[in-house]
Design the sequence.
């Protein structure tokens, strides 16, 4: 539960104390509503455990729900706080529809009228339970014959039903009709716990080890998978990522396997079991340990220990064939286990997970288990080696040590296990098997590293003809000739699907001729699906990859770091190819597609019909794709299934491949490719970024946009095209799904005259909602024409557009209207941006930035924007002067902005202008005022809904008036406002105390002046949780008064010091801040150490970056802080980065 509700760094990592964990969960759930689902609950013996689970949930808010499903009425009685809901079977009509689907499958049941009659009678016996329908339906579907169906209906199994809810007889009926081979495999699965997720291959290995899989013409693994999938088809298993078994099916397995198989757990009564005939035993300890609050650990159940001892008395352990252990255990358990199973001799399957002690502490006669076929061992003690005695288990077929912690070596005699079929371990351990050639039956060898000694020469692979799956061969520089590489016998290994051939990247001597001969001798079989070649030093392709290659089944080709490879194979000859990666091919100049002869012989002229992923990176000499169509008619279909394209750092590439329609394209990234711009397509968002030497955008549009199905694009961004002049209306007209258009850093960009359609209909993208124009040469008139065509637009940003000099709101303005300013400038209609009247009702977001000469024209004001919620106008000083001028012309007293505003960001304010702007903004929640040196006061009386107040670079700002009306302020940032800082105190120089009551609900404070840290202010901040002290100038130390004032911040849990280059120390009394949980110090190079008195005892997370070496070293050694991050990005300082972006952007003005 903690993993689900925790955000950011998990507070509970490493904590084992239950009370502490409950406190953390309780804290994380505050102010959150909870839905907890507990499916198939069966624990009913210990109500105290249920109460402990609920303890941290009882104090949370109303509306929380816990939903429990169970099959035990005793559970309902124990936990119920409301009436239970009894789930009956499906209604007859619904169940009949499902049953027919299960019984007939895809067959037309209308042609079997007699079967419908019999099926109806069978369905009535299944009581409406879907699981029974699935199981019995699968049995009926295997033979659509009346006699077969009648035998099912008349089976004696139905007489064994013990009640209306008993469906086990129906399930057993399906089991009875299983072939004997499948019955044995299914019943063996009773040894696994309920809810166990089966790895298919692992289960098949166990079946093989027990002799349950018959050997024939196919490999036993293939036969085993056939058995497993047959059980899936018959409804006994469910398949997703893993295989699983329904609990009722598991109950059936338990019933039908009672004579041989038994699983012991804490809920097992053992009644009715003849322990003397048990041959397969598993022990599940997961329910045997309970939390001991006194010892703060899990203690074993005494009852479980007694059961284990009882098993030892009743079971003839020396005759056991299977012994599997699930769950953890302690030393006492291991001692009892060792005593109980000291006589085992004939085990074929042994599974011992989480070995905390030596294997002899569990199985004292381990060396005598000479009949062992399957061995799974997991050690939790790092560095523990495998016991040497394993090498004497000559019948062993499966050795599974995949989860043995930090296993780095193998016993030298591991190759003595001549019957070994599966070595389940990491690839690096596969590479350490000395003399692996003796393991003739081995099914998979993940890695083989060629060495000089005989036990690691490539000829070791020759006899391993059973190898399948993946094979990676490294250090091929140790192979000296074609004859030697042919000794690997790769052509005979018909079960291998994935092959990696690798030379050492850092080798000194590279012989292109020798390496070409070696690669020639590594000819794989024709059924290979994936080929990966790295660091090959040859110039040419091997003949088995060249024209008319026999590897027609290839689906993936990876060629990487082959720096001398000049002549690549023609990749178009592989019809099933899905993935093609060409990386760091320094000498390749051309990517061949297909020879012209092969192209001429091709009937359909189809290239790459299956290719889904194309990656070409770091190929500095690559110039072109050699397409056989370059001189032909151009007919043919290319890249029809392509989903991902990544072409990066190929500076000489002149022509991109002819991609065609690419209807399945998901992502495209082209960067550093010849004269092409940076192109990035993600799903339906396309970003094209130019540069100083890129091609014209028109060529790019033809190459990329058309092929990416313009009509499907939802977001289009065009940036940094210095010579980009015009985007044709024909392109716009195809953007039928476009919702956002961004054009920026295109100084020559303009829109051509709009070609109005018949009767003035809109021919532009009808769904466009967001428009961003930045640093472009578009004129006011061109943008006005565009706005007229956007009926859904609600988001508009205009920045650094010098050809827009005036703004008119609503209606048309005649070209001869005189200027409203005193500069007598001759305004032309091209300079004028007119906001259409119908846009006034829709626009919710308007941002105008960095147009210094922009003025307002006409009599209409911003009051017409009745839906406007966000208004950002910065870097436009003349604009506000013109607003005031127009106001004075009218009534002189009307408000300037619409009352709907919730977010206002402005610069270059004075007292009169800002007062007028705020006069009616009762819904305003965010106010940001910056770069206003003439501003001396801010009248906040109307802003009763204000939650965030940001004031920056207002050097003469003296006072915040009307703060008494601010009852919900939660976030405040004050930066470079020295006069305001001085006068926020108990004895301000203007003659009266500043009212601090508006700070009562403040949660976050960002400041650059330490004078805010005084007792009067800090006492007024009972809710403050987060303080950011940033970019403070001339602050070297905190005074004694400031240290003491900080102690009044009783709710503070996060404290950040950022970019304070003059600061030499942290507050001396920092350790007294008893509520602080997170402390970050970023870019404060003058701080050399933590405070002498230490850090707060409550501190849980400490972040330090870009600070002095001394401070970072001390922080690394800090104890009692659970998470310490030094020069890492775990915190990421998100809010600080946003603040700094705004600051540096303003600095440029």
Sequence:
């Amino acid at each position: 539960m903690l993993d689900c509700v925790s955000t950011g760094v998990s507070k509970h990592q490493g904590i084992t104390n239950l009370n502490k964990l409950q406190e953390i969960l309780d804290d994380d759930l505050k102010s959150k509503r909870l839905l907890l689902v507990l499916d198939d609950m069966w624990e009913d013996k210990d109500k105290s455990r249920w109460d402990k689970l609920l303890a941290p949930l009882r104090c949370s808010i109303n509306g929380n729900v816990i939903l429990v499903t169970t099959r035990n009425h005793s559970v309902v009685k124990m936990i119920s706080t409301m009436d239970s809901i009894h789930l009956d079977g499906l209604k007859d009509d619904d169940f009949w529809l499902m049953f027919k689907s299960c019984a007939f499958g895809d067959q037309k049941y209308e042609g079997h009228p007699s079967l419908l009659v019999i099926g109806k009678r069978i369905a009535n016996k299944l009581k409406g339970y879907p699981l029974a329908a699935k199981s019995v339906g699968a049995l009926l579907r295997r033979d659509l014959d009346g006699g077969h169906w009648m035998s099912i209906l008349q089976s004696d199994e139905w007489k064994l039903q013990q009640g209306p809810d008993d469906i086990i007889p129906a399930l057993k009926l399906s089991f009875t009709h299983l072939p004997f081979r499948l019955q044995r495999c299914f019943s063996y699965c009773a040894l696994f716990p309920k809810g166990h997720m089966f790895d298919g291959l692992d289960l098949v290995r166990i079946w093989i080890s027990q002799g349950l899989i018959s050997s024939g013409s196919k490999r036993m693994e293939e036969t085993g998978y056939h058995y497993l999938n047959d059980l899936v088809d018959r409804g006994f298993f469910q398949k997703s990522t893993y295989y699983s078994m329904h609990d009722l099916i598991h109950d059936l397995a338990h019933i039908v396997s009672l004579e041989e198989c038994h699983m012991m757990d804490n809920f097992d009564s053992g009644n009715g079991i003849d322990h003397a005939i048990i041959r397969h035993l598993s022990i599940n300890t997961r329910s045997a340990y309970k939390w001991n609050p006194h010892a703060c650990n899990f203690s074993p159940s005494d009852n479980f220990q007694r059961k284990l001892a009882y098993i030892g008395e009743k079971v003839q352990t020396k005759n056991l064939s299977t012994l599997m252990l699930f769950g953890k255990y302690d030393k006492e358990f291991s001692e009892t286990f060792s005593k109980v199973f000291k006589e085992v001799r004939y085990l074929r399957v042994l599974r011992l997970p989480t070995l905390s002690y030596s294997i002899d502490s569990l199985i004292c006669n381990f060396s005598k288990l000479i009949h062992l076929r399957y061995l799974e061992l997991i050690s939790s003690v790092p560095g523990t080696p495998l016991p040497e005695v394993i090498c004497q288990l000559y019948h062993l077929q499966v050795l599974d040590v995949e989860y043995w912690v930090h296993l780095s070596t193998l016993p030298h005699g591991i190759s003595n296990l001549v019957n070994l079929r599966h070595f389940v371990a990491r690839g690096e351990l596969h590479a350490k098997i000395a003399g692996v050639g003796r393991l003739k039956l081995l099914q998979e060898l993940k890695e083989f590293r060629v060495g000089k000694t005989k036990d690691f020469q490539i000829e070791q692979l020759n006899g391993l003809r059973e190898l399948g799956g993946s094979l990676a061969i490294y250090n091929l520089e140790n192979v000296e000739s074609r004859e030697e590489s042919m000794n690997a016998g790769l052509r005979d290994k018909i079960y291998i699907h994935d092959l990696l051939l690798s030379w050492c990247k850092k080798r000194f001597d590279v012989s292109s001729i020798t390496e070409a001969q070696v690669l020639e001798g590594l000819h794989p079989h024709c059924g290979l699906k994936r080929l990966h070649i790295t660091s090959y030093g040859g110039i040419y392709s091997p003949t088995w990859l060249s024209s008319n290659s026999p590897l027609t089944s290839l689906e993936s080709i990876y060629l990487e770091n082959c720096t001398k490879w000049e002549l690549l194979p023609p990749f178009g000859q592989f019809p099933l190819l899905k993935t093609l990666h060409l990386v760091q091919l320094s000498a390749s100049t051309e990517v061949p597609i297909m020879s012209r002869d092969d192209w001429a012989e091709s009937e359909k002229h189809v290239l790459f019909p299956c290719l889904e992923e194309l990656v070409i990176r770091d190929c500095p000499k690559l110039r072109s794709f050699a397409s056989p169509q370059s001189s032909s008619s151009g007919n043919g279909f290319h890249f029809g299934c392509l989903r991902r394209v990544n072409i990066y750092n190929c500076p000489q590439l002149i022509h991109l491949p002819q991609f065609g329609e690419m209807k399945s394209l998901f992502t495209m990234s082209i960067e550093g490719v010849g004269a092409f711009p940076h192109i990035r397509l993600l799903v339906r968002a396309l970003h094209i970024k130019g540069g100083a030497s890129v091609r014209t955008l028109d060529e790019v549009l033809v190459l990329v946009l058309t092929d990416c199905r313009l009509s499907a694009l939802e977001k289009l961004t065009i940036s940094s095209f210095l010579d980009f002049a015009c985007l044709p209306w024909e392109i716009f007209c195809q953007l039928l799904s476009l919702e956002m258009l961004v054009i920026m850093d295109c100084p020559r960009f303009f829109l051509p005259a709009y070609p109005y359609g018949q009767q003035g209909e809109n021919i532009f993208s009808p769904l466009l909602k967001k428009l961003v124009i930045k640093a472009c040469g578009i004129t006011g008139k061109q943008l006005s024409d565009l706005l007229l065509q956007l009926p859904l637009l609600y988001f508009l940003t205009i920045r650094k557009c010098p050809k827009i000099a005036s703004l008119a709101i609503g209606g048309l303005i005649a070209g001869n209207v005189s200027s409203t300013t005193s500069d007598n400038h001759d305004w032309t209609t091209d300079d004028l941006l007119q906001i259409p009247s119908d846009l006034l009702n829709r626009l919710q977001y308007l941002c105008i930035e960095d147009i210094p000469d922009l003025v307002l024209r006409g009599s209409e004001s911003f009051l017409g924007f009745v839906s406007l919620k966000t208004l950002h106008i910065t870097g436009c000083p003349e604009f506000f002067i013109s607003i005031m001028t127009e106001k004075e012309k009218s009534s002189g007293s009307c408000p300037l902005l619409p009352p709907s505003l919730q977010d206002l960001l402005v610069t270059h304010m004075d007292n009169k202008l800002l007062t007028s702007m705020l006069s009616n903004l009762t819904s305003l929640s965010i106010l940001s005022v910056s770069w206003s040196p003439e501003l001396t006061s801010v009248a906040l009386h109307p802003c009763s809904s204000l939650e965030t107040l940001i004031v920056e670079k207002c050097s003469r700002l003296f006072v915040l008036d009307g703060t008494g009306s601010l009852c919900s302020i939660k976030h405040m940032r004050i930066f470079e406002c020295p006069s305001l800082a001085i006068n926020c105190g108990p004895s301000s120089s203007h003659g009266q105390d500043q009212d601090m009551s508006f700070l009562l609900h403040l949660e976050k404070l960002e400041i650059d002046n330490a004078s805010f840290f005084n007792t009067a202010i800090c006492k007024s901040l009972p809710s403050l949780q987060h303080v950011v002290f940033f970019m403070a100038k001339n602050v070297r130390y905190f005074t004694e008064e400031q240290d003491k004032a900080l102690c009044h911040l009783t709710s503070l849990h996060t404290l950040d010091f950022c970019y304070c280059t003059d600061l030499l120390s942290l507050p001396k009394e920092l350790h007294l801040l008893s509520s602080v949980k997170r402390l970050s110090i970023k870019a404060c190079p003058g701080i050399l150490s933590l405070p002498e008195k230490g850090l707060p005892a409550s501190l849980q997370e400490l972040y330090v970056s870009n600070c002095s070496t001394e401070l970072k070293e001390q922080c690394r050694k800090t104890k009692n802080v659970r998470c310490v991050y030094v020069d890492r990005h775990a915190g990421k300082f998100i809010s600080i980065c946003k603040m700094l972006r705004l600051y540096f952007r303003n600095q440029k003005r």
